[in-house]
Amino acid sequence: MKEIVENLGRQALAFLRHLGGIFLLFFSTIYWTFQPSRLKKNIFSQMVFVGMDSLLIIGVTSLLIGMVTAWQTGIAIEQFGAKTYIGGIVAVAIAREMAPLMVGLMCAGRVGSSFAAEIGSMKVTEQIDALKTLAVEPVQYLVVPRFLACLVMMPVLVIFANVIGLFGGWLVATRNLGVDSAIYINHVLSFTKFKDLYAGLTKAAVYGIITSIFSCYRGLEVRGGSEDISRATTFAVVFSCLAILVADYFFSVLFNLM
């Protein structure tokens, strides 16, 4: 029993230490974001990695999500004679919930793991110590470009996912469920409100912050060799996904109250 309590205590202390470190890195990143720098090229390269390089996987996933949502919705509401409302239901579901959550989780896996592994490798090979020797702030040089890239590009990816998801829903609704194309588009436009788009883009920006800060923090915390890099990568992905799901719940409650 004593060992169980001691183990729980150690786990709780480790959690609090990581939580404190994440918040410290976040505030440090905010500070260095507004300091003069010459990192435009680095920021642009990270934006290409987060955004352009993710288009294919986001596009395929969004297309399938839109098709599945339309199919399941059509089957469920056809018995009530409301099949023509598929477009509106798919649009609201994708804009408010599915697109931002899918983009957040996909980027946490793809982008977060890369950030943690890359920075962790630099930590192991003492490249970060070399930056400090050259009077270069590691947070400004390594974290800020990744932070800004995720903050800017993940909402862009959500917009892209919305369009592709609606196209997937349109394919199923018009080809398989017999819904007229004009009716589908009309319900998409009439059901979708500005609040739905705003909610999705806000979620995406916050998920970008979570992914970048969690993954960069764990990369900077690497202490050992290659084994610790693998643990850092796992930590970055798992806890980023968990934090995104928790944030998604609170956002859903908040926006439903608005």
Notes on the protein architecture:
The chain is an all-alpha fold and 258 residues long. The chain has one domain (40-257). The protein has helices at 2-33, 40-50, 55-78, 86-124, 127-133, 138-175, 181-191, 194-220, 226-257. Helix 4 (86-124) packs across helix 7, helix 6 (138-175) crosses helix 7 (181-191) and helix 6 packs across helix 8. It is elongated. The mean pLDDT is 90. Keywords: Membrane, Transmembrane, Transmembrane helix, Transport. GO terms for molecular function: phospholipid transporter activity. It is found in: Membrane. Belongs to the MlaE permease family.
Give a brief rundown of this model:
By secondary structure, this protein is mainly alpha-helical. The chain has helices at 2-33, 40-50, 55-78, 86-124, 127-133, 138-175, 181-191, 194-220, 226-257. This is ABC transporter permease.
